[in-house]
What does this fold into?
Amino acid sequence: MADRYVIVLPTYNERENLPRMVRALDDVRRQAPFEGDALVVDDGSPDGTGAIADELAGVRDWLHVLHRPAKQGLGQAYLAGFGWALARDYSHVLEMDCDLSHPPDALPRLLAAAGGADLVLGSRYVSGGGVVGWPLHRRVISRGGSLYARTWLGVDIRDLTGGYKCFCRWVLEALDLDDVHGQGYVFQIELTYRTLLLGGHVVEVPITFEDRTAGQSKMSSRIVAEAVWKVPMLRLRAVGGKLEAPPARAH
It folds into this structure.
């Protein structure tokens, strides 16, 4: 299979941000080490984001749209996008927020790093990374969440809660995606942890995360609470042998 990527972009009420994101990707795609596409996964946005996505895709052969009837959570939107990607010949599948908080210009660096890794994380918490525009409480929640998960799971990944990721195809094929049910922080934590359990090589590439300037954040106390109890459960399931083991085949 030739190298080709697809970026999964979940949207819910992102009519202001989606055109800006697509224009940014128009520019950065030329700098990527190989060709690729993007998939907008819209959860029936009442602000008309889905219709805007269709208009943008109508004049770009690299942009695709997957419509879902209603808001079902970020994790489920990503899983739907993964399923769409795995039904096609993509060698790499990326996660990316549509609000431009994940810098599009870091895309070539993530793809380049994927040449020596099974999962590449756009990391705010390694040397050279950072966060711009977040209030103190958001910084505390994010850094604290990564530390909490790192301690419980016994891994040395600095940015476990981040959502800018590049998977090699074999990882998503090997993961039991039907068994992934988290929605927010814990969804990101779980995918990285289970990749490590598979024996995947995970690399962190520094990025600067910039808070959204348009639209509303989907962050909520429920997302934090979900991670608090689900992270220990992940560890217990792993210890009990109820999560993935490394596949016998080489990758």
